[in-house]
Fold each of these.
Amino acid sequence: MIKEKLLSQSVRMMFTSGVALSVSMLAHPVFAEDEIQRVEITGSSIKRAEKEGSLPVQVVSHEDIQKLGVTNTEQLLNTLSVNSAVGGTTSAEGAGTTTYGLSAASLRSLGSNKTLVLVNGRRLANYASDGTSVDINSIPVSMVDHVEILKDGASGVYGSDAIGGVINFIMRKNFSGFEVSGELGGTSKGGGQSTKAGLVMGFGDYEKDRYNMTMSVDVAKDDAIYGRQRSYAMNAWDEVNGLWDQSATPSGTLRTFRPTTTPNAGGVIPNTLIGLGSTIGNALDGSVTGNGGGVKSASNCTANGSAWNTNQGTCRFNPSPMVALLPEIQRANVGANFRFKLNDNHEFFFDAFASHQLTTRYLQPSPYSVSFLATDKQFQIQNVYPAIILDPSNPNYPAAYIAANRPSAAGQPVTVSYRAFDGGGRGNTDTSNQTHLTSGFKGTVFNNYDYDIAYTHNSSSVTENTLQGFQRQVDLAKLLSHNPLFNPYAATQTPALAAQIAATNYVGNMLTSTLSTDSLDGKITGEWFKVPAGTVAFAVGGSLRNENMDFNPSAAYQTGDIAGYGAQALPLTASRHSASVFGEVVVPVLKQLEADLAVRTDRYPNATSTNPKLSLRYQPLSQVLLRASYGTGFREPALVELYKQQSQATTPTFLDPVTGTRAQFTQLVGGNPNLKPEKSEQASFGLVVDATKDLSVAVDYWKIRVSDLVTALDPAFIVQQAAVGNAGYTGLVQRDSTGNITQITATAINAGGEKTDGFDVDVKWRALKSAEYGNFGVRLNGTYTHGFDLTLPDGTVQRSVATTVIQTGVDSAGHPIYNNSNAVTSTIGGVIFRWKHQLSFDWTKNAYGLTLTQNYQGGYTDNVPTGFAPNPSGQALKVGSFQTWDLQGTYTGVKNLTLRLGVKNLQDKNPPTAVTLGEYFQTGWDPSYYDPHGRFIYATATYKF
């Protein structure tokens, strides 16, 4: 039963520029016994007759994609159980973080930098701003014929960044005619409307006319969704469960003003601060005029745009209604492939696509505090205090409140927090463009040997521009400090001062970055010699690759003086050459046993590595297949990981256990030219059984170990470990004479490593085939992650499956002490689920079809809701399992027309409550796995002619 369908008999030639391999789809067992033809199996360069090979591959067909009702590639890959938000990037995560519009996949939770993404077997350029990941949304969905996911670490076969696996998008070719499609969808709660249109056209028949040109055009627009449009995302805290966002303090929070009194080398006392100062509080917690803070009232809070938090007894700013849960995204993609038969033995081919994406997002107004301004070096350069200073002569100075709560500061200048409502909500755009061009020749020489050779050019460019709400910090501090007209206890200022605040906005370019790769690859394959069990086949090849990156922040970005952008960004221009050679041999040991041995050598300027891979395929019966593999790999750090200049940034809010201060602190971030390559070992073992003619089951065990892991540690974890005297971390935390943190070193390092293992399950059951009742089928794809252990530089092991926190001890009251799991925080969040699956039920009869799909993920342990009494024991939050159901109906009763009507999240389920504590701008829920569209109703139409 493990045989090739007649419809799949054409050889799907694919190439990787880094490997120069031709590979093809490995599907799951099929239910037809048609003529068998040799095909190329993903993970190998050599054609063979068997459909199921020695490596596990999941295939998502064009029809599967249509049934999912997706409008972009990110939505498609999020349905895969093997893909994870840990190490990847979703569109939602781009709200408030510097993703620059990137969407990236992460197989096995190992990271997008260890997930190889291909189109027709060839590499794309990494995203220009990120430098380590491919933007999956740049791939035109209408042009995709099917997707192959190699769920086995394969850097020994494919190249250095295939440790976690390979995602290969195979584009449509030899298409003839026209196909027009359109989709319109919307949510039941508002926001998030989606429109999409596509055109695929093809000319010529390759076999008859000796050529074919297939082209596609995709355009799509997804509207934004804001927190105010979703009940679960409207608040940064919960009066029952705790704080979701600890950093969103309101205007008016006071700290003592601590200027230096020490002259510099020129004998001048500079305008710098000794430290952040001590917290006094917010006068709105009592009254602005001051009565010792004895009266606490919610009515005071609304004056400066904040709200009352009963359990904390304080005013807090609630940013959540203003935060984009999803940004507005406009996309346009074009693609083309051309094939020309020179003669019976040789072919010229050309593949290309180009994508354009515009991402627009708006957020809450910019906040200001001493901790935010401390990293801005422009204050030192311009000799300005890094603070907004409120003088006793200011009519809004809360003298009585300060005297009652901090007598030593009475009558003294103080620093004050402020949120710049008059500057407008922050708005910016990211424009990304990607091109992919491949041309080459393939065919047969000397009658028996297949060859292919190709040149590939990839480029990615990203531009970010601000629209409003991002102030020049020094200008704003100079404007408001010592200004008697400034009132930090009002949401908006006088019209004249408001205009001056708006005038400090920086509107213009923040970043223009490009990354390009050029490669030349070639290979030759054929049969070598015969042995008693069959014929030994071989493949040899090589590639040359050149990579160039130009990260060019604007002059304003380089100053580090633009609010909301944190550290100064410094230019990076870097390039490197790499080369590889490989060989592969397939040996039929017995009639039922086949061995495949591949070896590959990659050479980079700073490293050379040779990695083998051995896989075995044993089929004792036609209904049973056993497969196993073992290989090693390595990943040379990306240019940005090596050479990105180090600079200061601001951490999320956390508690310093030494001083008891809960704040945001300065951290040093950036690259590390001394990084070593990551190394890996990976192994798998699987069983595929055609239990009956209509039932197929595949179970595969996988295990991957990565050493010399390139990562950046969570700053809160660094501080906590340094506080308990862990020698591996004490040197990473700097403090001033009073014990306040001045800097945390959190640059890229080689950590101990990662180890993960688990099982993949794939069940396909044709439950019923009836002329009277129709055809009914069931499909289950699931992943069980048994372990994901992160080893830190000091040897500490963090077990990170189904948890976002690690218990590191107990406090004096016996309450647990937690830190964020570094496996999560070093990759912008996410959850490694113990079990995740997609279960679909299909029914078709004549022109009608229905598909019901369950998307399921297990529960996990989340962070600790903090801030007040409802959680006195400090226990972490338990998040339950979560599932949604999707339904789609199909009608094909009109010639050449296919109509689909679908509903995603049929029950309109809200996400489970989650505590992310600064990992995202969104609060109360986790954007790494939940789609805030909620119930989404869509209709599509496809017409072919």
Amino acid sequence: MFSVDRGGNWFAYNSGIYGDWCVHLTFINSFLHRSWLWWLQDHPLAQGEPFRYPFLSHALTALIAWVAGGFQVPQSAETVIRTAWYTSVLALAFVPWLFWKGLEIIGLNWVQRALAIFIFTGNGGWGIFKLGLDPNKFPTNESSLNLKFSNFLIWQWLPQRSFLFALFHLALGIYFWRKKRHILSGLVLGLLIFSHVHSWIATGFLFWMLVLQSLKKIKWQPILKFSAAFAFSSLFGLAFEFRNRTGFSQPWNIFSPGWAQGHSSFFDFWWTNFGISIPLALCGVYFSKGLVKKLAISGLVLGLVACVIQFQPYDYDNLKIICYAYALLVPGIVTGVIVPLFNVTWKFSNKVATNTIGKYSGRFLAVTAIVLLTVSGYWDVTAFLNGAQKSHMFSPPDFAMAEAWVASIHDPDAVALTAPRPNHWLPALAGQPVVAGYAGWLWTWGIGWEKQTKLGRMLEDGSHDITAELLHAHKIRYVALDPNRLFYMTLGKSVMTSSNGVVIDIGE
């Protein structure tokens, strides 16, 4: 996930970590350094935009970091370390355990469970073969491949703690359902919208797909109790996340079939992204039985929906939905295709042929299918672990400046103006709200980044149009200056001085 060199510089192994973690660390540090009701105010990385992001995982991360620090706010570097540690534990231990228990519930034996987890974790398309299996290239980061089915481990779980906390949330809801606490289960799962919207969508979709497939034998009382509770708790999240959407520059929930942009053909798109997983999934739906079959059908329909409707402004976010669809399809692939191939013996008129070709050809096909299903994903993981295409995140001066700022006398809720570059220490490590954060994240979230970052770009360019009056008009109190922009010092008094920059207070 991260590496630290001898000079104390932090590097990210994944462009998702590089681009998104500055945002998530800002939210976590906002909970640590600001009042707990800050989330009812403006977005800490987009002044004037209401904060709508699912924040429950950030609040819990901040709480855990605070408790682990002896009920004291940890230093900025320690917060990053603990956040990375919690994420790694959840991704590498909790998710496999949860999948294992889920597969046990639906009736798979331990061999089938282990095989399903291996296949699921190694997911990926065949786009890597276009790279010639170059170990210095990280397939997920190769934009030319236009991959939409990137490996879940390195593109979803490690970069996105919200996804991991949502799985923990999901496990709790399933536990209450199995204990026949249907109202409590509905309340808990409805609140998924505060953890991870895509998990909330997938959970609701799966629930009603299972209901529709079980109409003849269903008991309606627990269904209605769960549905009412789920809808009740979901309403709070919907009201929070969809308030004042007027500032969004990109459409949400749009009909967009295909996703074939950037490929020579529709077939090339599917081959590059999914390989043989689609035909094997269809076979799994046909040959599997019982609850596994119902889950496989649900996964197939959910995957199709996620391939024609974008649930965020940009289509690659639908991978979060497809992750659930694939998890539902894999048990069907294992029990309906892989295991039967292992056990089949094709009979020939010649007994020797039956005991050799007939007995082992099915096993050969099964092993070949497993390899073809996982070679892309595990190659991606290998490149990830080798640190291919690392990106710089933070340096020791960033942590030092964040600590100095936290120790200074300042208003933690006042807005600061910074250069809109990735991983700026003031919001990411000190939790100070800014006019505009990393433009790349604002853009992907659908916020008009050109307008939002205008003042920051003026500051970065050294524009003399920045005046105290202009800053007051935008309700800005602090300005973070690089060493080459100290001529702005006339605008206010110094709050914090460092060899790497100065923060000035221009007053309220």
Amino acid sequence: MSPSAGALISRNRKFLPLSATIVLFATIYLIGVSSFPAMRDGQAFFDLFITTPFLLISVVGETFVIISGGIDLSVAGVLALTTVTSAALIQAGWDPWLVIPLMLLMGIGLGAVMGFFITYLKVQPFIVTLAGLWFARGLSFVISDLEIHIHHPLYRLLAGTRILIPGLADPVTKKGDFITVLVVVALVVLVIGMFIAQYTRFGRTVYAIGGNNGANEQSARLMGLQVDRTKMLVYMLNGFCSALAGIAYSIYVGGGHGSLAIGFELTVIAAVVIGGTALTGGEGYLLGSLFGVLITALIQSLIQFNGQLSSWWTSIFIGGLMLVFIGVQSLLATLNARQLTRARLGDPVGGAGAGRRRNRWRDRRVFIGAAAVVGIFLAVQVVGAIRGPSTSGPPAATGCSLKSLRANQAAGLAKDGAVIVYERNGGSSCIDELFAIYADGKIVGDDGARKVTAEIAPGEVTGLLTAIEGLGWYTDDMYSTTHTPCGQCYRYATNVISGGKTKTVAAVDGGTDAPAKYWLVTSRISAILPKFGSTP
């Protein structure tokens, strides 16, 4: 590395985590595109936004909290409470245009209460927001134990409206690449957040009070900055974002329930950290948080394209990336602290410390390079594990051929009392799996040679059916699509029988023509299905 390049990196060291996040996203995406041809469709990229608007909104608020040196675990509880409360009020006849601002005020109020405990009573943010999480989620179940559906036309309009991408869609046929209203709302929140963080006094104060293990907060007080007011506003802002995310989530799923978004708070924090924001505070950018959200969605999308891995692998990969980024942040913080100490003690140019500085800069370059290699290696391993066998050319010589869907057998299972019949075939191994889920919790499946059974609680089946109906299963937004599968793509047929209604929807995971919510349905079903053994 040339001295000029080294000096450039040294002056812009604060941008290294952000740059690493962007490079990591680009690396994973490019490898995914090379592995799964369907990802070359532009809609596959826009789907990363379509499936995560509520996450992006939550991440904006959480980023401010973490930059200020705090933490907020209450986001999932406030989100769930917002979905239930808004659904209950709309079901009671309230106008959504009144409910939505009321929910936002509720989020701000909860944030203010937690901010008061943290700021003025000096209680640790972790404890206060954990209590807020349980309080909000518990209150959700007090309002209703059951999921409440929202059938208001406004919610259906917001959920079903597609905004076509100019140049990538045909406005006459209304087909092509698109995003949703919720994506636009999330991006507007992101842009406003970026403006506040970078161009307002409040944003500069947030950066000033975070970092250096709390020492920066004391320095900010000595400088005359309004630390207490800023901390209160930070938690109120995050309460607002959590409530807005809850509104977006209720529109997305078409209802509300206290069990929604369990563990969501950890996903939010992980996205912020992967986005390059230091957990110690004082450093980070909302643009990085956006890419943290996209990385989370991208890994989930790749697992969906793979079709063979459990959805829990998303958590495994995100956890690994989070550890890498925390390690990088910790080492960078140590290097910055050493540099600040040398500057305070004084070290004349060209003196005895000059050689040590050169050695340390050399060590820093080695560290930065090693961290980049580790990040890229992890990205390659993630996609390598997801994509499985190579997809170039036809499937590996397995001696099998693609079978037809077993529609008659599936109809027989539905007639025998199954409430969900789920079939999947194809892939590089030419599988042919058919499952039936019954109301009493019994699950049976066969792949033509082997049979598997499992038992779950009847309440889980009821909850699954409710969630599927809430995703619009019995509406025109859920429709069948078909095309020739790629080399290791799967064909699906899902039949849901509930409340006297029955509907079968088929799709192929190698394309982007199927409804986005269809994959939410199949992922929920796949999560509870038993696995076949390795041999017949």
Amino acid sequence: MDCFSQIFKTESLAAPGFHERLVGIIVDCFQKKHPEISIENKSIEILTNLMHSFCLACGQAPFNFAEFIDQHLKNKREIKTFIAKLLYGLYFRDFDLVELSKKHPRQHIRFFLLQILSETANAGTLRKAIRSLSWDDLAVFIAVAHLNYREGSFLLLRQIQDLFRKNPMINLLLRNLSRKYISPSAFFNYLAKTVVKDLRDLEKISQNLQEGAAKQIQTIYQLFYPLILSLIASPVKTYQALENLKGLQKTQDPQKLLEAQNLSKKFKEAFDFFLEKKNSEESFAVFFQQFGLYGHQPPIKVPGFHDSESLLQKIQALHKLFQNPLSFASMPQEDLQAIYAFVLRICYRLYTYHCASDRYKEGLDLLTFAMPTFGKDLSRQPWLFSIASGLNTLSEYFKKANLEISLDQYPIYVFDQSPKRLFVKNQRFIRKLEERFKCCIVHVSQTEALLLAKKLHLEKLIATQEKGAFGYGGARNCVYFLTPMLKAAHKLGKRTVSEAIDLNEDELQTLFRRSVLGEVAQGQDAVLHMGDDDIEVPEACIFADLLFAQKFNQEYFDRMTYIIGRATNIINPYLDLQSFLKSPAGLYHFTQWKDTANLAGIVGLLSKPKFCLNLPFGSEEKDFRLKGYSDPFRPALIHLSGNRHPSKQIPADPFSGLAESLEKINVYVFHIGMVQSLLDSRDNKGRCVFPWNPRRNESPYPFTSLGQALKFASQEKYKKEMQKRFWKNVDGLLSPEQKTTFLIGMDLEYLLNQDVDASIREFRQTNPLFEKVKSLDEIGLCYKRFQKDAKLFQDFLEKVKNEICQRVENPSTWFEGCVELNLSAIIEQIRKEMEVQNRVRFKQWPFTHGLYLLLRSVGAGEFSDLLNLQT
């Protein structure tokens, strides 16, 4: 079955259409009749031939994939899952063949396969695979795992760390790489000219890399103080340079000169604390060993800064900028402010690390780390491990600073809705983490969270789905409303959730008003780090979070952070069947790996307690906006959510198993489109329904606490204002002239107007290779279900509007008069009538059921009524 040698010999991997032709060959190989061969064995044969041809074409050593399977995998389920992951990855470009083919003496596909293996195999299989590596292969793999970071990197590097826990040299190497103190690309290039025969060879390489890092620090040290002085002098120098451009016509502008002098004075005052205490080069070295030399955010629009990797390159770029004042005279004010903030934050962090470690302690007293999770094996997820490990590092730092603490007093909270068997497994993992890192993790079950919520009359803000499930909004509210309470109870000696629940209602309300609502005294409410189970948090981010909490505790704020990895906040809906058939890989564009950092939403958000709507949909972070801050000079978080491809079957073609994925992804996307269209929380279209959120170009309302915000949002006049705005958006969506100006309106048009059977038939006719692919029939049925749901959605919305119009005095402005009606009763009446007429239950039709929940929560104002209960 040597089907691949020709394409790899004659075509460039980067050639237009290469990927599509390669996929076509794979599908053709599967369709050749070999009834005596199982699909597992056929898959192994296909992949073995593909990888053999790939290695020959790229100049890599010969490789036998079948032997790789025999060596590392015995369990049939693991083999099937591993093969499926590879095939889907090829179909949907989860890995870059061009990148894997790059000429390098140590580049080889087997190292990449070990990464993929770690994403599907159990810990025992991984340990066995690691033990089988030579010292040379182990060194290369450590470099590759960091250089091409993905989910498998995190899992395998953890296993290497565990296996070599008693080896200080390997631990130091792993620590320096994870902290970005040494560059993985420099490590990889070093291995190109060195064969690692034993541990001593690896130690020599590690020492050489550390010496290279030390030289960078030496140069940074030499440049940093002159950079600060240049920054301080820049306003006056810029003024003078602009005056010199005028030539003989120049006339001094006293006002502008005074403004420049005042700004320079302001800069000097800001940096005085750092300039007065001259730090040594050694203190710089100790600091950057912890905070790294690569990957600091945010990117700033300065030539040589935005795309550069190392901190040294960034500082050199800023030096070059300040040499010519005219080069930044025309820079936007926000870019100049970003440069100032970046340099100042380095000074502030460096000073605090060496001279004011008590600030970290104050921040730790204020900040609590918490995470909601559902159905995830936490032993394979990065957030909890990285937070526990980071706090352990912090504890060691405090010891060196003569500040003894016990992490037992600073619990991490995990709200786990997993089924009982998985919950127990997660519990065991949590106990191992506590023992290893000497920390405290409070594992809160769904039942415990709801019991506490009921005592505080919060259950409807948290249980947004049937059987008490939280959904997206409820899970976030769980963290916002319950975590501060549990932390406050913990300080009173109530260490378990059950002990907190047993407090009487008066005691709970007192804790609630102080730690959540912030009504007792400003700064008494909690600061929260909102975790996501699939986020890896670098240690430096934990130090940064503590310092930020300490500095801004007296304000009511939130602070977003930068993120790399899987960009799941950017989702491509595939409600248009023809577009999906043309490019099924597009369904997973949102899980492609992105090395460019972008601002995250609620992931890693640092904030005071706030609220989300009592709805189970995504995009929940936009429901309530606080005064936002940035926090420069910190590494990006890493999103390791996986590619989210199907895993239940080996895909003989790109459409295999996608009907189930389409069902999940398109429902999720449809709901997000619905709330973005009808709520417009960020006012992107000038249609924001929430009176507590600012309009475009307006500053957020100056709330000082959650209690104040809840009192505002629950007032009857603001409830009615929210309802009027919402129903006006509904009126626009139902208007033929305005419908397609709404994202959800375009989605409905796609769904209601497409001929599913004709689209499938036409695709088969123009793509004979897929003529007999049965998975297309499953996809067709899936789209017909979407279509029926969309029709039910539109009918439901129109019937609710028509019923309201019949009851108001002026139907032309029904969206204003409707607020005086019992809208909950009307919505409920229409739902019951339609379920009887159509012989359906809305809960079985997710688009329509989502609309029903939204109409009740926002349209009928029930969400505002829930907020009133809190005050």
